[in-house]
Structure formats: C-alpha cells, structure tokens
Design goal:
- The protein contains 11 helices and 47 strands.
- The chain has 831 residues and is mostly beta strands.
- The chain is globular.
C-alpha cells in the first residue's frame, strides 16, 4: 500500500467544555491537567463485558442547557440512542466532584462502561501531558468511589504516540501501565496507535507496541479525499474517491499487519522490550468522520468496513466507531456540518444540537447525492445472530468471540451485558427452563472455564469445562436450570463466566472458529412453561464419587436427590435432560452418564438407560466436561414413571474414581440436574435418533456434510407462524490430536439458510491431546418459522481444518451393539 505523501494525523476536536474543565482543575488542584481531548474512542475488550461495541461522542438525546459551560452531554447524558442501538462502551471523563453526579456515576446508572481519558502525549517533548501526581490522584479517587469504579472499562492513558519522534514512547506507555496497576490492580490501560507514523507502517511498526498497554486500538481509516494531502486547496475543492475497501484494501492489509505482529493471538508474543508474555488483545476502530484529509464514509462504506473487519480481522476483540457526532472543520461540504449520527443515518440536514430530532428518512439524498439507507443496526454491524420474536421463548445470541484475561477465579463477570442478556416481566406465575450454550476453551493448560446463568444478578446454575492438556480444545458446554417466576415481577437473565482459579496472565475464551468472520454462537434461552405440572426437576450441589466401577453396571448417582417421579397427565412424551460436570482422576478412564426410566414399558432394555453419553479420555485428568444427555420418552396417560441419573466408567476402573460436580464454590459444587418436560401428543417433539457410530474421513475443514440423511433429516410444516427449539446431542471425538469436530444444524425452507452452505447454529469439540476423548456435546438453538412453509432440518459436520486423511467420530461405546445415541430433537412452541 502506498503511503507516500500522507500527512501526520490531523488534530480533531473533542466535545469538552473548557471552562468546566478549568474549574474542575482548579477545584481539585490539577493545575497541569490537559484540556485537550483524545482523537479517538478506545475501549477495553477482554475484561468483564466481553465483545466491545463502542463509540465516541454523545447522541442527540442530549440537549445543551442554554448558557451553561457544560454542553449538556459531558456528564454521562446523551447515550439513549447508543444504548438502544446496542453500544456498551462510550468515552468519558474522570470527574466525580461535588455539584455533579459525575460522568462515571451517570454511565453506571445507564449500565454502560466508560473509557476514562487521562490526558495526552506530547510528541514534541515526548512526555505525558498529565503528571504522575495528577494521574495517581484521579485513579485513586475513582478507586475510592465504588459506583464510579464499577463503570470504568479502561483508562485511556494517551492517544497516538509517535515512535518516529519518540523512540522511548513504548517504554513510557508500559511504565504508565505499571503505574496504573500499582494504583488499582483491577484496572486496564489502553491507547490507540495510528496506521502511519511519518514513514513507519506495517507489521514491524505495530510490533513496537506489543505489551505496552493491556489492550490496544488501531485506527485503520479507508476513506480519504483524492487530494486530501493538498492543504493549499480551498475547503470546497476536496474531491471524493472510492474508499479503499474489499480484497486487497486497507482493512485487509492492515489487519494482516496487526495480526501478523501477534495482536489478538491466544499464545505468547515478543514484547516491545524483547521479553515474551501474553499477546495484547486489540480493537478495530471504524471510520465514521471527515476532516481535511479523510472523507466521510457513505452508509455502504460503513457496511463494507464492518464486513472487511469481520472477514480479515478475525482476532479482534471488538469494534469502536469514531465518531457518533464528530463536527469536522472547514473541509466539510457547505451544506453539512460534518455530523455523522451513529451508524444508522448520515444526517446532512442540520446540527443536532439545535434540531436534535432532524434525522433524515431513508429516501432523503445526503449531501453527497447518495440515498441515505437504514444502513444496518448493530445486529449486522457486530455479527449478532438473529433471534426469534419472543413468545413463550426468549433467546439472546452472539456470534462474537469473547476473551477473559486475569480472572481472579472467584468473581463472576457478565459475558456480554448488551447482547447476552434477557429482560422481561411475566404476566402470570410460570416456570422457566433456562439454558446457556457456549464453546469454551483456554490457551493455558489447567485453567478451567466456568459458565453460569444469573437471575437478577445472582448465579442460579453453573458448569465447568477444561483442565490439564486442554489448550485450544473447545468444549460445547451446556448449563441448564429451572426457575419459578412470579407474575408482575421484573426478571433479568444473563450469562456469566470466570476461571476456576486465579488466572494470572492466562485467558479463557468463548466462541470457536471463525467461519466467515463469525464465531460459533453463544446463546442464552428462556423457555416459559405455563403449566407447572408439565415440568419436573431434581438437582443437587453435592459432589459424587464412583470408585471401582466394573465398566458395565449402571449405578444410580443419587436415588434420593437425582430422581424424578412423574405421572403422565395425557398421552405424549417426556423430553428429559441430564446436566452434570464429569471428570476423572485417572487418565484414560471415561465417564458415562445415562437417563434410566422405570414404568410401563421401561426400561426398553433391562439394566440399560434410555439414553447415555460419554465424557473424558486420555490426558483428561481433573478436566470437567459440562456434559448434557437428552432422551425423548413416549408416555401413556395416567401412568407413573420414575426417571433417574445413572453412571459408570467406560471400562473396569480398578481402584480409580470418577466424579460428578466441579468446584466447590462456598462448599457447593456445580449443580447436577435432571429436568423433565412433558409434551402432549398434540404438540409432540419431533425426534430423530441413531445408535450407530458415524465417522467422517477426509473433511476439507470448510464444507459441511450431512451426518446421515436417512437417520437425522426431519421436516415440519407449521399451520401458523411459530417458534421451534432445536437441540443436537452427540458424543464427538477424534483419533487425530489437534483435529476438532464441528457439528451444526442446517435448515432449508422459507428464509433459510441464512448463509448459503452454512448451518444456522454450530459448535466445536476437541483439540490438542484430545484423541479418543468423547465430549458429550449439546448444540441448542431457536428458530422462527412461517405458516404453511415446509422446513427441513439436518445434522451436518466437518473438521475445524483440513483433516489430511484423519477421521472424526460421533458415538461412543458400544454397549452391546449400540453406541451412545446421536439425537436431533425439535420442540414446537405454538405450532
């Protein structure tokens, strides 16, 4: 890419009331506090809130009070539209003084996180514009305010240092990061690095900043005037040109440099000073502004920027928009005061500070003659998966990958408060079956991943995944609970996570892949059951050991606490799920868990459960698997049945022991649960199951293939529009270390498939050291169906990379002639 003649980054305005800043500086004694703001919005990716959706500025819900030094947007207001659009991070200031609520307090009240701007970097003197004393005072002041501290996402220690002018800048930023950690060890530092520094660019240039801050942003701006570098031209003589996007464009080129230098990688990297440590996560900054060099992107350019980052920036941890309302300068076309309203519309009609409701309708031409389209909301911009309209099923889903570094092993942190959260108020008392489904993995052997469902802020259920030799080995983890809801009460459900012990510099991840820039879906689902008699459940927070299993005889895990009696109210079927953390203390000793049924016609085979799954394998000691086993059991009206969880080892264990239940946390182990859902014949589940073992040799790692069309294809033609909840349950494993197994649910008919050649949901299992190690995987999704349309669903699978003759398998065992069942089950909701 040709950078010849490109100017240094131009200064840009910052909507800060100088008088208020001066007053604050005098009030707290910060006489040297900088009055210059940052040029970009940076955000922290790998902390409590997962994938960042950030923006700079304030929206038009903020109105400046007449005659006020504060522009009305300075103290945390002006974020209503941002919140509605799904943004979770905005830039803010550190002020928490008398007479104002404080910017951070205001953001905390809105459920947002703030990037706290901490002054600039002077590229002439090669020094920070904020002294160490002022820096320490601000950080410690916020540390002492619990509300303000809770709203800090990261401290933006300075913007765009030039290593060309200041070779010691990386070391200076690393030193200030260390200072921040001394002041408050829970906080992270951030800076933004421009893509061109007076002749320096490319991979080696970016690598100079590895390890200097906790998370780093890169502003890669693809849209500039063809004569932007000619500053002798009048402002109205600037000439637009096509943005440098797509294959071979700026995003692809610079994402290659960034990721080539190691940013966003899960392993270790060479740092700025030659030492090695964990690679620094990064954020991609998207251009939505104009100045005398850069031109304002059209809506289609914004869309293509997002597409390019999804395609080429696969290791990014988030996207940040610069800017929501950047006002530009004299190089703005005369009819437009350079106001870019978020990422939905380019507003060329007026200044929103004087006419905040003037947002152009989609058919209005913008000031460049383009038709303003309702671009895309954050669902498209941030690769979120589509979710059905809530009826009796509420679901939240994300196609982002999440990274959690430095967990203390005790504190549960929200996985994504913007997209993996469900809020509603039931109209009457109901029971809810709540499920969380995620691909969990780590880059640090021995660092387990804990996944939880929280209800109104309290953890209701959790599971653990991972263990020794488990690096880069996703586990299709599933956690489920049953919760009683009271009519008229507000409920909030969200997914949370942590490590099983202090992580130090280690990190855990949620989301495998990517495929086409999108990671395996992470999903939260709440299914409401109005008739309490239709749901029965039993759970225990004890840990269970089983020593000396003969490998053949199934034993009840807990006949008292993990047994469910059920009287069928009508003819129909029971959808039964067993959810348990399984692990062993002896390498190679797998753990089998099953659902046993007694009652008229059961057991189908004496001494055997109706369904079972296997977990564990070689190198798998003390490595819990968040296992799930599902069965569909036909029942007869008025008949009594008893359902139990049973288990055994996969072979004679000698004196070795297998376990159920991870932890403990405060003397309680991860809950082991058995759940029974009754469906009458009029709303029966559609179930496809096979006790064969399936194998796939020679997958190219890209093309999804049907596992067994004869066994697993199911069709449904609803008479009315409705929802369906679909699950796939199978034991996946490989004979080739490092070859992970991907399983998906493909859908055709109506508006499906959403993407040609791709399933609607998928999960990944396996990895390094994982040969002959079945994973009791479960894949869960919800789909919206149209009336009078036929839909076909199938199980599909592939490897995560070209298998080079290697094989993957579905089905453990056998027991007798039957392998562990592979199952595809559809539950209709109002169909």
């Amino acid at each position: 890419m040709n950078h010849a003649g490109r100017p240094a980054r131009l200064p840009r305005g910052f909507a800060v009331a100088v008088t208020a800043l001066v007053a604050f500086a005098a009030l707290v004694g910060y006489s040297d506090i900088a009055l210059k703001g940052p040029a970009h919005i940076p955000v922290l990716l790998d902390s409590a809130n997962g994938f960042v959706r950030g923006t700079y500025g304030r929206d038009t819900s903020c109105l400046p009070p007449a005659g006020s030094d504060d522009n009305g947007c300075h103290w945390g207001t002006g974020v209503s539209t941002m919140i509605a659009d799904g943004f979770n991070v905005v830039q803010t200031d550190p002020y928490i003084f008398e007479g104002h609520d404080g910017a951070l307090d205001a953001l905390a009240a809105e459920g947002l996180k703030g990037i706290v701007y901490m002054g600039g970097w002077d590229n002439s003197s090669c020094t920070f514009t904020m002294s160490n004393t002022a820096f320490d005072s601000i950080v410690n002041g916020i540390k002492g305010d619990a509300v303000a501290r809770s709203a800090v996402y990261a401290y933006y220690i300075a913007d765009e240092p030039h290593v060309s002018a200041c070779p010691g800048a990386p070391a200076a930023f690393a030193a200030r990061t260390a200072r921040l950690h001394t002041d408050d060890s829970t906080q992270k530092s951030f800076t933004v690095i421009q893509d061109y520094d007076n002749g320096l660019f490319g991979q080696s240039y970016y690598a100079k900043w590895m390890g200097t801050v906790d998370v780093i942003g890169f502003d890669v701006y693809p849209c500039n005037f063809s004569n932007g570098a000619d500053f002798n031209l009048s402002p109205t003589s600037k000439t637009r040109q096509a943005c440098d996007l797509g294959s071979g464009g700026k995003v692809q080129t610079d994402a290659g440099y960034i990721q080539g230098a190691g940013f966003g990688s899960a392993g270790t990297c060479t740092l700025y000073n030659g030492s090695t440590s964990a690679c620094t996560p990064y954020l991609a900054l998207m251009q939505d502004f104009q100045d005398c060099y850069y031109e304002l992107p059209a809506n289609s350019d914004l869309r293509n920027q997002a597409t390019d980052w999804a395609t080429y920036g696969t290791k990014k941890s988030g996207i940040v928009i610069f800017s929501w309302n950047f006002y530009g300068n004299l190089c703005t076309p005369p009819s437009k005061p350079a106001i870019s309203i978020g990422v939905q519309l380019d507003n060329c009609a007026s200044d929103p500070t004087t006419n905040p409701t003037d947002i152009m309708p989609p058919s209005t031409p913008d000031c460049f003659g383009n038709t303003a389209e309702l671009l895309y909301d954050n669902t498209h911009l941030f690769d979120l998966c589509p979710v059905p309209t809530p009826t009796d099923v509420y679901t939240a889903c994300s196609l982002a990958q999440y990274r959690l570094a430095g967990s203390d092993g005790a504190t549960w942190q929200m996985l994504d408060p913007a997209q993996l959260k469900i809020e509603f108020t039931p109209g009457s008392d109901v029971r809810a079956i709540v499920s969380g489904n995620a691909d969990l993995w780590t880059a640090t052997a021995g660092l387990n991943q804990d996944l939880a469902i929280a209800v109104n802020g309290s953890v209701a259920a959790w599971k653990e995944s991972g263990g020794f030799a488990g690096t880069f080995s996703p586990n299709a983890a599933f956690v489920q609970t049953v919760y009683n809801l009271t009519g008229g009460v507000d409920y909030t459900f969200d997914l949370r996570w942590k490590t099983n012990k202090p992580a130090g510099p280690g990190a855990i991840f949620a989301g495998a892949g990517p495929i086409g820039g999108k990671f395996s879906p992470t999903r939260l689902t709440v299914e409401l059951v109005a008739t309490a008699a239709s749901v029965a459940t039993a759970a225990s927070t004890s840990q269970y050991p089983l020593a000396g299993s003969d490998g053949a005889t199934w034993q009840a895990m807990d006949s008292t606490n993990l047994s469910v009696p059920f009287n069928a109210p009508a003819n129909g079927s029971l959808v039964v799920g067993g959810n348990v953390d399984l692990f062993t203390g002896k390498s190679g000793l797998n753990q089998d868990v099953g659902i046993a049924v007694t009652g008229a016609g059961y057991p189908t085979t004496a001494g055997q459960p109706e369904a079972w799954k296997e977990s564990g394998g070689y190198a798998g000691t003390f490595s819990p698997n968040a296992a799930f086993v599902q069965a569909v059991v036909p029942v007869t009206s008025g008949t009594a049945y008893t359902l139990k969880l049973v288990w055994k080892a996969n072979k004679a264990s000698g004196g070795a022991t297998i376990y159920a239940g991870a932890g403990p946390i405060s003397s309680h182990y991860s809950p082991t649960r058995l759940t029974v859902l009754f469906l009458p014949s009029t709303a029966a589940a559609v179930d496809r199951v096979s006790a064969l073992q399936h194998h796939f040799t020679g997958s190219n790692g890209t093309t999804w293939q049907n596992m067994d069309t004869a066994a697993f294809m199911l069709t449904i033609t609803p008479s009315n529009a409705c929802l369906v909840v679909v699950g796939a349950n199978l034991d996946l494993w490989t004979a080739n270390a490092g070859l992970a197994q991907d399983v998906g649910i493909s859908v055709s008919g109506g508006a499906y498939p959403t993407a040609t050649g791709q399933p609607e949901a998928w999960k990944e299992s396996g990895g390094y050291g994982g040969t002959y190690s079945p994973n009791a995987a479960y894949l869960h999704t919800a789909l919206e169906l149209s009336a009078s349309t036929t839909y076909t669903l199938e199980l599909v699978w592939k490897t995560n990379k070209p298998s080079a003759g290697g094989s993957i398998y579905a089905g453990a065992g056998p027991i007798g002639s039957n392998f562990s069942p592979t199952r595809l089950t559809l539950i209709p909701i109002g169909c």
